[in-house]
Amino acid sequence: MATIYEHIEENKRRTVLLVLLFPLTFVLLVLMTFGVLVFLSGGGAEPSVSFYNWTLTQQQAELAYLAFWIAPAVWLLAMLWIVFAYFQGDKMMLSGVGAVPVTRRDQPEIYRLVENLCISRGLPVPQIYILDEDSLNAFATGRDPQHASVALTKGIIKRLERVELEGVVAHELAHVENRDIRLMLITVAGISFFTLAGEILLRSGLRSSSGRGRSKNNGAAVIVVLGLVCLLYGYLIAPLIRLAVSRRREYQADATAALTTRNPRALASALSKISQDSRVEVLDKRESMAAMCIANPLESMGLFSALSGLMATHPPIEKRIAALLEMDRPSYGAH
Predict the structure, then answer these.
(1) Which of 82, 104, 133, 193 has the fewest CB atoms within 10 Å distance of its CB?
(2) For the whole model, what pTM was predicted?
(3) How far apart are CA 90 and CA 2, in angstroms?
């Protein structure tokens, strides 16, 4: 079994891999798509032109020219978005779900609980946020332990016993310590960029297509196609890349939390209660953030997430509970 330090190094490598894969695979998809369009638009008796040593019709040349300019531009925008999200993505996500920051004065018991666990793991105390939700869930975000945040729903604070809540917070702090939060931040940023860009481009292209003139219509068609490619990428290809973020990280965080609190049974009990009411309504339209939570917060998984369980963001709760109870078995065997 990998040590926590090996897990951290592995997450660092995966973060670099994701930063490279998101824009590069998108550019390849754009070039392939426009390559097909150039090939399909080759009919007719239009005069031929020379384009990079190829003989193309006028329409083919226009499509090829636009593709070779648009693909690098979108790649650059994607890279800029990922860099921006790396530094500001956590704040955007917390603000987007209406999370409210709390201090020691606001929630002294919760703050002490988090602070004590941080001391035991040698971590700085993260910013604590509360979500106005009666359901039971929690997540951590940020780019590193020095810039981390832990968010808890009101329901999970009210309805869990202290030892159970301690296990949940220890689980989220394990994600902070393991740098899972950085990996997930990049993943969410990449997926959200392409889905948002796709919607904007598709609407813009459809509005522009009402204009007259072949050149203008070709430009609108390119924008529409690019928008469709972005949506396809955001909803299908990017989630496939997300599989590089192994679901093993949840088992790793559970194990780290159990070792921190020395009470795996308490976390198992917490997961059992959470599984009965884990939906967070504010996340229903933010499927990409689901992987950040301790349990799936969505009412129902999206189309692609539901395919054979391959896109599931979390391993089954039952298996996680069983693994925790297995950790607890030796201490109970003495009785």
Answers:
(1) 104
(2) 0.81
(3) 28
